[in-house]
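Human:
Care to share another protein and its fold?

Assistant:
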Amino acid sequence: MATTTKALTRAAFATTVGDLYTVPTTGTTTVVTNIVVVNTSASEQTFNILLDGVEVFDQTPIAGHATISVDMKQVLGANATPKKIRGFASATTVKVHISGVEIA
């Protein structure tokens, strides 16, 4: 088994739900290890992140010029239907960095 540590996504959120990461193949398991969200505006914003359709963050507020960092071990298992991380925020000034491990 090959294990690859990587940035799964580094992006500004869109204001409508969209894909942030898709498990690459049916033989790959991905483990999400860390999520960092930063709000680069002065105003409070909100964000949502879903792992395989389940809300991990739901309308979570983030203060202006603040950062939220969460360490975790969440598995997106290999499957015939690709597993996805999806998300959005109330403004494009909210950015996300998700780190993890792909196991193939």
Remarks:
- The chain has one domain: 3-103.
- The beta strands are 3-12, 18-22, 29-39, 45-51, 54-62, 67-76, 84-89, 94-103.
- The two ends are 6 Å apart (CA to CA).
